[in-house]
Amino acid sequence: MATSDLPRPSNVPSSSAPLPRINLFTMFRLGLFQMGLGLLSLLTLGILNQVLISELQIPAILAGGSIAMYQFVSPARVWMGHISDSKPIRGYHRTGYVWLGMGLQAICLFLAIQVVWQLGASAAAGWTVVTTGWLALLAGMFALYGLCIATSSTPFAALLVDVSDEDNRSQLVGIVWAMLMVGIVAGAIVGEVLLDNIAPEALQAAITRLFILFPLTVVGLGIVATVGIEKKYSRYANRSSFAGREDQITLRQAIAVLTASKQTVFFFLFLLVMTISLFLQQPVLEPYAREVFGLSIGESAGLNQFWGYGILVGIGLSGFLIVPRLGKRHTAMIGCLFTGACFILVILAGVTANPTTLRSAVMLFGLGSGILTNSAVSLMLDLTAAETAGTFIGAWGLAQAMAQASATVLGGALLDIGRQVFPSTFLAFALVFACQAVGMVIAFGLLIRVNVQQFKTESGQAIATLMEMELD
After folding, report:
1. Which domains, ranges and CATH numbers included, belong to the chain?
2. Which residue from 80, 261, 282, 343 has the least number of CB within 10 angstroms?
């Protein structure tokens, strides 16, 4: 039986039946999925990179490049989003893909850590063709891991569109993305406890246990987060003109709808510039704290706590206070300018070389990031056509993933350029933060041109044209 021929759930309400609105408890339950992603980010970016670079002495550019492969396969998000729109699993467009992707992520991470140990053993005996083969296999494992992420996270984000309305979307985004930060913090605490005072000879076994425990926990969290949600709350059947039809929109037609409005171009560019500007500091903030402020490795790593506190407050303030009063676009514009000003404060903190000033600036940067993240993601979900929600979410995810991967490379490159151009270490780091401030101003300029109502009109016309073509 074809996937599109599977029966729709018998209790999906008709277009005339009122649909229940998600409450706070349901929002927090959905946030468990993002909490799980926070836990997994600790494994890849918080532990695995340190193991490869510090413990196994793999060159940083090779280690970072291998891990970054999961970001560089992000074009698959557009295709995966379209699949979830057009090919439901047992009548559900999102839930089955979310569960499938999470299960495959757990398998990929377990296999990846096994490859890491083989790579380390081979590199310890000298770099050979076999070592290069293990490195290539590790990069391939993370490419597969990226495909698994696309399989789960893109339909999940589309599910957020399906179950929410414009007036409660910022609250949903605020809670769900705050839970992501909770997952990162919780993972850091649990990881520190489990790996604290581990003898070197027992480190491999302890890390392997983490790569089993965390992914299985995340699978459980994801199932609890989403079970029954689509069945009870999804508005997809009511919103989509193509829901339940055999002639589903093709990928080519979905991309035509995606590109029908110039607003999508402006917003795509805004996401690129904003995300790059946010994450340029990712590879340089801790070295900045060490080289300019004289902090230890532990103290510089602890800056993430202050950033996390700020972003949690910013997400909450934006979702429940600022966006309901000022709107999503205006809040995002404020977030761009405020975050840009915070980068200037990070530079000024270097003039004083006072660690307390730096921590305060980083916390304010987190606050601005939280405000900007909540409003931008809420706006992103608004700029999504119901008939092709997965495809739109995939496109926005593509912009963010490619921007994050590029920002990690560009941040290090800018620092290297700064070291060559300026005689002062402080000025080399200041160059990176100054570029971030300029990027936020550019993002602000792009956001001015985004008009949600015009997008809805133009994408609606594109959908109507598709339906007319099908009727003809």
Report:
1. 23-239 (1.20.1250.20), 250-472 (1.20.1250.20)
2. 282
